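Run log, item B.
One chain of 133 residues. Sequence copied directly from the ordering sheet:
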Amino acid sequence: MATDGLVTLRSANNFATTLDRLLQVLEAKGVTVFARIDHAAGAAGVGLTLRPTTLIVFGNPAAGTPFMQAAQTAGIDLPLKALVWEDAGGAVNFSYNDPAWIAARHGLGNQTQQAVAALSAALKAFAAHATVA
């Protein structure tokens, strides 16, 4: 499912496995993980509840820099992010911003076509690794 640039896939794995598999594939591919934000833990810290929801911020300057060279405002959407989250029905989902949407959002047109293709392929592969049983 894609909505306004957001791609969401249903995972065949539980939350912990989906998250672990994402982190494993990023490490295996030499991708830097800049941050891991556990939104459920943050909610618990202020006395609120939230289903499992973790944001992973990751990237590779060689892949993302062409976007920012073409339009520095792309830095608001980079590094890349993936959200692993559990919905109200208990299903685990994997969401990320489509690189083509990022390029369009910043008016990059054909300037970053090669970078868009490379990032799209990488994100699809990372998502598949994390979500397929």
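Observations after the first pass:
- The longest strand covers residues 32-38.
- The chain has a mean pLDDT of 95.
Flagged for discussion on Thursday.
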